[in-house]
Each structure stands twice: as C-alpha cells, then as structure tokens.
Amino acid sequence: MFGLCELANIPLRFEPNDRSEIVSQVLFGECFEITEPTKNWLKIRLHDDSYEGWIDNKQARKISEDDYLKLIEAPIVLSNDLVEYISTEENLLIPIQLGSTLSFLDFAEINTSSYIFEGLKAQGIKPKSNLISSAFLYLNAPYLWGGKTPFGIDCSGFTQMVYKLNGYSILRDASQQSTLGEPLSFIEESEPGDLAFFDNEEGKIIHVGIIMNDNYIIHASGKVRIDRLDHLGIFNAETNRHTHKLRVIKRII
C-alpha cells in the first residue's frame, strides 16, 4: 500500500495516537509506503529519507503502486517560497509551505483534483554556494521538535530541507546526517554549506548547523539564528557563552 500527502503538512508520530511525540512532518506532495495499516492509523516509510512513523488514517490519500513508482522516478520539483497556494478549477486554495513537493501535479491520473501551482519552483541540483541563500529563507523560524517548515523546524529538519531545496537528499536526524560525507580536521578547512555537528556529555550527536563564511553558523536553536563558531562550539553573543560543543565538521557535497 502507498500514499500521498495532499495537506500542507501531516504530523508524523512515534506511536499511533494523538498524544504521541511528533518525530517529523510529511509535507504536501510527499509520497510514502504504508507498512502497517490499522483502522485509525497508518505506519509509513517516507520515500525521500526512509523515515518511519505513524500518521492519522484520515489525513492520507491512498495511491496505487504504479502511481507511487511514477512519482519516485519523476524529477523532484519543490515550492520555493515561504508560503504559496495550490488552487483548483473551483478556485479552492490550499496553502503550502517552502519545500513542498509538486511533482505529482504533472500526472493527470494522480492529480485527480486538478491542482494548479503558479508560484516559484526549485528543481535540479544547485551549486553549493546556493545553500546559504536557501538557509536564509528559514531565518527566525521558531524551533519545533520534528518540524520541517518555516513555521516550525528543528535543527536537522532545517539542514535537510536546505539541502533538499538545492537538489541534495540527506537523512533526517542529526545523528544520521553525521554519518555522511568527509570529516574535516579544522574549522579553517570548512566552506559555506558544510555541516557542523555537536554532541552532549555522553558523546551523542544532538545538534547540527550549516557553516557560513567568517566563522559564523546558521542553525535552529530556539529559532533559526546566526551565531559564532569556534573550535569549542557555538558561541552565543547574546548570552556570552557557548551553547553547543563541537564534535565534527562534515563536507557532504
């Protein structure tokens, strides 16, 4: 069984109940495999990053395996503005957020509601230098555990979405992302767009941010913000202290 998200976003939960932790979000246009259907809930695996969780059965549109295969083989097209609208022939509007997937709109047999999108699009692989411009689109977005949108986003959702907007697919969680790419020995070796990872006292990777020029970093902590980066970690000039301990810098692209 397979499905498609036709809402602005669907909460992806750790367990099949409304009080369970939201571990991520399914954005408009994302498709998934349904691995464990129940009466009220569906356990799904997202195609884009293989992330798993539970969604409300009422919020999913079921699609055939043939349609699913068409979607995963199609070029990825994303919305590229903070908020845009999908419209129908009846002039109904559905708000969608930055990074929503538009690929299925080109398939009449899947786009049965005749959705129309006339906003800005992102597609194809962009130069690495474009990552910081995309990151700025999320500046001041509030921190939200499990979030992936400008209206609420967590640290690894932020890095994943910035990379996705530029044509690069990376894993969902900070600990997963830290397994990718090539480690760098010094901050001085880094380039804008490289990822910096931070650990806790037990050595577990708990945070990630995107390196900028001149020893700055943009990351989601309270909100998407810009702070200083040094060999110890992230330094917050407002509180005059280090907030995150640097573990490793990775060059993903």
Describe this structure in words.
The chain has 253 residues and is mainly β. It has helices spanning 65-73, 131-136, 155-165, 174-177, and strands spanning 2-4, 9-13, 22-27, 31-37, 41-46, 52-56, 61-63, 77-79, 83-87, 93-97, 116-117, 121-123, 148-149, 152-153, 182-184, 195-199, 205-211, 216-221, 223-229, 233-236, 241-251. The strands form 6 sheets. A 6-stranded antiparallel beta barrel has the order 16-17-18-19-20-21. A 5-stranded antiparallel β-sheet has the order 6-5-4-1-7. Strand 9 (83-87) and strand 10 form a beta hairpin.
Note the main attributes of this structure.
253 residues; SH3 type barrels; five-stranded antiparallel beta sheet; 4 helices; 21 strands; globular
Q: Summary?
A:
The protein is mainly β.
- Structurally, how many domains make up the residues? 2
- Helical percentage: 10-25%
Please identify, by name, the CATH architecture of the largest domain.
Answer: Alpha-Beta Complex
CATH topology name of the largest domain, in short, is endopeptidase fold (from Nostoc punctiforme)
What's the β-strand tally?
21
The number of helical segments is: 4
Biggest sheet architecture? 6 strands, antiparallel, barrel
Give the uncertain stretches in residue-range form.
Answer: none
In percent, how much strand structure appears in the residues?
Answer: 35-45%
